[in-house]
Design goal:
31% helix; globular; seven-stranded mixed beta sheet; Aminopeptidase; 161 residues; single chain; 31% strand; alpha+beta
C-alpha cells in the first residue's frame, strides 16, 4: 500500500509549480509577496541548511514544505536542543485546503523526523492565521509564546520527540 503522503525533494523543474502556488491568493495572504518568496525558495534550492519538498498525495503534487536548521534568522526562538529543526508549509492547490491534509501531512513529516533522531521541531505561523495554527496543533505542536522575527510577530510552536 502506498504512503498517504510522499515528500520528495524539490527540484528546479518544479519551481514553476511552486511559483504558481505562491501567487495563489490563499497562499500569498500568509506568505507575502510571491516574487520575493519565489526568490527565497529558488535561492534555498541548494542551501545546506534548508530541505525543501513537494508533498504528493495519490500521485498529485499539492503542497510545499520546507524544513530548516535554526540560524541567526531564528534568534527570537531562543535556545533549543542541538538538531532542532524548523518547518514551514503551505497547501498550493486550493481544492485541497480545509480537508484535513495540512495537519495530516505535517504530522506524518514531523513523526518521521522525530523518529530519525530530531529532538524537536518548531514553527512560527502568523498569530492571525488560525487555520495554520489549528493544523499544527492537530499535528502535535504546542503554542509556546509570541516571538519577533525579521518578518514580524509570530506564534512560536514546539513539537518534541
Amino acid at each position: 500500500m502506498p504512503a498517504e503522503y510522499v515528500f520528495h525533494p524539490l527540484t528546479a523543474a518544479e519551481l514553476p509549480l511552486v511559483r504558481r502556488w505562491l501567487a495563489a491568493p490563499h497562499v500569498a495572504e500568509w506568505w507575502g509577496n510571491p516574487d520575493e518568496q519565489d526568490k527565497l525558495v529558488t535561492g534555498d534550492l541548494d542551501g545546506p541548511a534548508m530541505e525543501q519538498y513537494i508533498v504528493v498525495r495519490e500521485e498529485r503534487p499539492f503542497a510545499y514544505l520546507q524544513c530548516y536548521e535554526l540560524t541567526a534568522w531564528n534568534a527570537g526562538f531562543g535556545l533549543h536542543p542541538d538538531g532542532t529543526r524548523g518547518i514551514d508549509q503551505f497547501i498550493g492547490e486550493a481544492d485541497m485546503v480545509n480537508r484535513g491534509h495540512g495537519s495530516a501531512f505535517i504530522r506524518a513529516f514531523v513523526a518521521g523526523k522525530l523518529a530519525s533522531g530530531t529532538p524537536r521541531m518548531v514553527t512560527d505561523p502568523d498569530p492571525k492565521n488560525g487555520r495554520a495554527i489549528r493544523a499544527y496543533e492537530k499535528a502535535g505542536f504546542v503554542a509556546e509564546r509570541l516571538v519577533d522575527t525579521p518578518d514580524g510577530r509570530s506564534l512560536f510552536m514546539v513539537c518534541d520527540a
